[in-house]
Amino acid sequence: MTIAWYGHLKFEHVPLWKVILVSWLIAFVEYLFMVPANRIGKIEGMSGYQLKITQEIITIVVFCFFAVFVLKEPLKWNHLVAFVFLFLAVFFMVKKF
Question: How far apart are CA 33 and CA 47, in angstroms?
C-alpha cells in the first residue's frame, strides 16, 4: 500500500483524479497478495491481532526504504527509536506466553 498511498507525492503536477485512479489500480494488485497471505497466516494458526501487527511492521519497513530512496527524506534517530518500540510490540504480540 506504500506505493498506492505515497507514490503520487512525487507527481504533484498530475491531476488528483488521475493519481487516485492509479493508486486504486496499484492497491488492487497489492490486495491480490495481501488477502491470500492473511488467509494462509490464519490457517497456519496466527490470530487476527498477530496478522495485523505483522502487516504493520512489514509496511513500516517498506515505507522506510520508500521514504529514503524515493521521497528522499532522511531517516532520523527518533524514527529509529519509534521503530524499535514497534518491533517490541510485534515481539510481544507474536510471542506465545
Answer: 18
